[in-house]
Amino acid sequence: MRETCNPSVRIRPAEKEDFHKIKELNKKTIWQEISDDAKSRISNFDELYEKLWPAFSQKQGNAFYVAEDSNGEVVGELWVGINKEDVSGLTEIAWIYDITVKMGCQGRGIGTLLMGKAVEHANAKGFKKMGLMVNAKNTKALKLYEKLGFQTRNLIMFKNV
Ligand SMILES: CC(C)(COP(=O)(O)OP(=O)(O)OC[C@H]1O[C@@H](n2cnc3c(N)ncnc32)[C@H](O)[C@@H]1OP(=O)(O)O)[C@@H](O)C(=O)NCCC(=O)NCCS
User: What is the pLDDT of residues 19-40, one digit of tens each?
Assistant: First the structure.
């Protein structure tokens, strides 16, 4: 069954109580899209999320936003923080760690709105550059980022050894 989407959405900072909604949103979207290989490394989504969340939410520089519809449903989330620009570790830049939009609400501009909020947040913190990491096969996300002016600089490669 196709999920419905309420078109009236606002972006606001996430509150502590949103944790559960963000987790459920990610479970229904990212979890559905990741490869079986990645899934085999993450056996229990809820457990992993609950273990990682305290560290993520408390880390200095991390900020979380949600896209909330007029019924109070969280249909999108954004996690923006800080990262090193390169291995020298000399320069810090703003970093998108996570962005998700509910399946039935994708393609309606919510991802673009969340990315706009990320830029606004970064500028308010004094950053003039932003980076992110994305799976090379994630066409939807790649298209969004390229449309917004992100350019590929590094590729990360993996191999079982
Ligand atoms: C990536 C994601 C956040 C985009 O959110 P969204 O709300 O659909 O984005 P928008 O509606 O603002 O679309 C912006 C652009 O993204 C691209 N895009 C969105 N949906 C697409 C699709 N189904 N196929 C191809 N490109 C798509 C298009 O370039 C689009 O611009 P256009 O409408 O002018 O063509 C969303 O697809 C998502 O949550 N994906 C699963 C989670 C994920 O992969 N997150 C990224 C982790 S790095």
Answer: 999 999 998 887 767 777 777 7
C-alpha 155/C-alpha 3 separation (Å) is 34
CATH superfamily of 9-147: Gcn5-related N-acetyltransferase (GNAT) (3.40.630.30)
CA 135 to ligand 1: nearest atom? 48
Spatial distance between the Cα atoms of 40 and 43, rounded to a whole number of angstroms: 6
Residue type at 158 in one-letter notation = F
| Dist. CA 109 → ligand 1 center (Å) | 8
Q: How many CA atoms lie within 13 A of 117 on its CB side?
A: 24
Q: What's the pTM?
A: 0.93
Give 40-79 pLDDT, tens digit per residue.
777 788 888 888 888 888 899 999 999 999 999 999 999 9
